[in-house]
Amino acid sequence: MLLELRGVSRRFGGLQAVADLSMTVARSAIHGLIGPNGAGKSTVFNLITGVIPLTTGQIFFKGDRTSGLRPSEICRRGIARTFQATTLFREYTVLQNVLVAAHLAAAPGLASALFWSRAYREREQRARERGQALLDGLGLGSVAGRVAGTLPHRDQKALALAMVLATGAELVILDEPMAGLAEQEKAETTSVLRRLRGDGVTVLLVEHDMKAVMGVCDTVTVLDHGLRIAEGTPREIQTNPAVIEAYLGAEEPGA
Amino acid sequence: MAPSSSKAASPPPAARRGAGAPAAGVALVALAAATLPLVTRDSYYLDVATTILMNLTLTMSFRLQVSTGQINMAHISFMGIGAYASALLVTRVGLSFWATLWIGALVAAALAVPIGSVALRVSGPYYFLITFAFSEVVRLVFNNFLEGWFGGPSGLVGIPKPDRLLGLAFEGKLELYGLMAVLCVGVALAFVRLEYSRFGLTASAIRQADLLAETLGVDVFRYKLTTFVLGSFVAGLAGVFFAHFRQVLHSSDFGLEPMVLLVVFTVIGGTGSVWGPVVGTVLMTIAGELLRELHHYEILVFGAVLILTMLWAPEGLVALPATVRRLLRMRRSKDARAMGVGLAP
Fold first, then answer.
1. Which ipTM score applies to this complex?
2. Is B316 on the interface with A (CB under 8 A)?
3. What is the pLDDT of residue B334?
4. Residue B18 above 60 pLDDT?
5. Which end of chain B is more exposed for a tag (fewer CB within 10 A), N or C?
6. Best CA proximity match to B16, nearest among B191, B281, B272, B329
7. How confident is the model at residue B19 (pLDDT cuts 50, 70, 90)?
8. What percent of chain A has pLDDT over 90?
9. In A, what residues contact B, Cβ < 8 A?
10. Is the domain of A140 the same as that of A100?
11. Beta-carbon-side half-sphere exposure of residue B75 (alpha carbons within 13 Å)
């Protein structure tokens, strides 16, 4: 078990965004988190990555408790995420974005940054080469020198994914990786996700495109009003009456 | 700072991080500083040049903090802490200036650790207000408390010039100018190296998107505190020099007005690049001298310049060439569309 949520809840004033949620994410799986708007999916992501604190409950990653830690420490433990509204360092080039994300792999000391020792320069050169290789693998190699803010939407999404991978995270959390993409681009993203799983990276994703979710996920968890209403393989989920009711609304008795 | 490429999207200053540009820039600053005494040894000009270099160490260290998203309104206070610390250590304890130069800066840095740790719990306008409140506290302490030590409203007087070092006396303007030039070039070299290193890359990333940086594993608080303490050390260093250069300290030297000028210099030059403070400080200190006749009204002119800069060159004067090029390109593509050769909308 890579990630475990135990009785996690989060309350915003009078709104119970997530209620007593317990779930697990298995290693080297693609795990989908779905649910109607306002079901609490993004809140769950924010809780796992430490962006907002839990009201109650605990979260464990590789057996260690991560709830209560700061986001940077949680990332250090091996969890990285993208944001629903694609967020990048817009003034930086594509490669520089990846270099910032690769911070953990080559943590720069203040002294080495001041004195530019030979070891420091060599490490920087290696980091650039690794970053370039990562970008090549995601089809961004040719735009490595472009300013991130000027990229088309598709490339911005791919860059956000590249940055998450650059951290070396074992668990990658993606908030709507398919949103706004054309069919062809969705297919590319799907194959990238499968490749990651093959490399031993675990993926947890929120996605509204049901066809994509059912096509790529090994396990799907369904949330509604902050409650977990179903979990299982895509096939089980598609025929689960509770899920159908949540998405389509209950049939009126006698209608 | 002309970019070497003319691609459709020329990277902003922060994106140009080669090895050549930083060394050339610092060499240029050092060369300019070394040339001045060959041109003139008039004490007035040397005085203005010394002030420019002193302001430059302050604006460059202030900019380092801005690059991580902090507007530290107490920056000038750490200059004051360095200044008063050194003045007292020399006059009361009898230490040498060459020791207190570093001790004063270290005192400022040491005080910056707890103060930064508290202030950096918040960000944005709250951080601005906390640091502003702290700077007023420091100013009032210098003005109203321990009058026997700080000299109260009439100031701390009788501070000696730096003592002899390696056979050099620091009595004249030229020697003091030379000392400040060495300090300033050393500080500039350190900051430029930081800016063009991985540390600078990460620091400026925090300004662009702090939450993203944090979730990618960057300890944002530690980065901010590091720049806060490092900036305070440099401000303290400038303060020590200031104390023994002016030989008298008043609490108002470290009050709101000089702090606002510091912000104005930096913002007019541009905070997006390590070269912004250089441009802003040199131009505005000279402008301030030319406007000396206006007395207290010079700040009105500075205000107007600041507003115009914000309107027409929000990224500062240092980014002006790139801004003009972008505008020209937009106009050209608009003309092209008007002639019907552009892409259909």
1. 0.89
2. no
3. 64
4. no
5. C
6. B272
7. very low
8. 53
9. 49, 51, 70-73, 75-76, 80-81, 83, 87-93, 96, 99-101, 103-104, 106, 108, 110, 113-116, 120, 124, 127, 145-147, 150, 163-164, 167
10. yes
11. 31
Give the range among A69-73, A160-164, B324-328 with minimum mean pLDDT.
B324-328
Q: Which of A163, A191, A208 is the last residue of a domain?
A: A163
**Nearest Cα residue to B234 out of B89, B68, B117, B106:** B106
Same domain, residue pair A150 and A186? no
In a domain, A244, yes or no: yes
| CA–CA separation, A165 and A168 (whole Å) | 5
Q: Say if the Cβ atoms of A147 and B11 lie within 8 Å.
A: yes
Average pLDDT, chain B: 84
Q: A28: how many CB neighbours lie within 10 A of its CB?
A: 15
Tokens 């030059």, residue? B269
pLDDT of residue B16: 45
Q: In what order do the strands lie in the sheet with A15-25?
A: A15-25, A3-12, A56-61, A64-65
- Domain residue limits at A145: 90-163
Q: Is residue A12 domain-shared with residue A69, that is, in the same domain? A: yes
Domain shared by A7 and A71, yes or no: yes
Compute the average pLDDT of residues B133-145: 91
Contact A91 B190 (CB under 8 A): no
Query: What does the buried/exposed string (b/e) look like for A103-138 if buried means 16 or more CB atoms within 10 Å of the residue's CB?
Result: bbbeebeeebbbeeeeebeebbeebbebbbebbeeb
Instruction: Identify the domain boundary among A118, A142, A163.
Output: A163
In a domain, A141, yes or no: yes
Q: Check which CATH number belongs to the domain holding A17 and give it.
A: 3.40.50.300
pLDDT category at B196 given cuts 50, 70, 90 is: confident
pLDDT one-digit tens code per residue, A105-146: 555 567 776 777 777 888 888 888 889 999 998 889 999 999
Are A3 and A68 in a shared domain? yes
Strands A202-206 and A30-34: parallel
Tell me how many domains chain A contains: 2
The CA radius of gyration of chain B, in Å to the nearest whole number, is: 21
pLDDT tens-digit series, residues B37-94: 888 888 888 888 999 999 999 999 999 999 898 999 999 999 999 999 999 999 988 8
Backbone angles phi, psi at A7, to 5 degrees: 55, 45
